[in-house]
Amino acid sequence: MNFSNHLLNRKSKVMKNIIIGIDISSKTLDICIKEESLNYYSIENNVQAIKRFFKRYSNENVIVAMENTGRYNWNLFEALEKFNFKVYVISALHIKKSIGLVRGKNDKIDALRICNFIEKNYKESREWKPSSCSIKKIKILLTERALRIKIKKQLVVQQHDYKLMKDIGLDKELKSLNIKLIKNIEGQIKIIENDIENIIRSDETLNHQQKLIKSVPGVGQVLSWTLLSKTEGFTIITDPRKMACYSGVVPFDFQSGTSLKRRPGVSMLADKNLKTILHLAAM
What we know:
By secondary structure, the chain is of the alpha/beta class. The chain contains eleven helices and seven strands. It folds into two domains: about 120 residues, ATPase, nucleotide binding domain (Nucleotidyltransferase, domain 5, 2-Layer Sandwich), CATH 3.30.420; about 90 residues, Helix Hairpins. The mean pLDDT is about 90.
């Protein structure tokens, strides 16, 4: 009897999950590990340091969770592809809404909150899977394109201020420099757009999906690129209803008893970039 209890206890220890929450910044990773006790670590945010740290857990049942912080996640993604861990990338807003009233904040506490959140919710959360190389490239190029479009808008607005400099004789020179800079940026945008199209054409699946998307009236290149990027080739969002909710185009009820009853409206919890592009396509 004692021997069987020993085996059961050993099995439970072997099967027990190790929960890891990671708070990410540009240079460091603050890590909270929940095993028999809580342990905290801080390591550099580079691929070699991450691989070195996680190597000790390579034969364990590990659940790793982190917030989505854009480019700061990339080193973690590259390193974690080499391990057989369950990885979850969580919206910061989702965690914030789930923890209730809190006071204070630092990197160590944030790592603990991520750790506690995923321990309770990992069964209902979607597990992260590495994106294909084509999707990674498209996402980066779309980000670079958006940055240049923002700069171009600022330069166009700036042209109106040059009229105020006519009295001191700088208006024509500055406007000429401004126009040259805009043309340069437009050339870069065109190069990026051609690169995106070439990536899609070279990928048989993405090329077929783009043709299907563009067969819908009003859908052009930018919307097709955005849909492929946001859904990662329709692999992470496969349900039309979920896609509509994610895009922020679904009305929801606002009603409570008899005191609160408003007409249905769309939620602010949506991908604003995708919603904007869908709106422009519909105009």
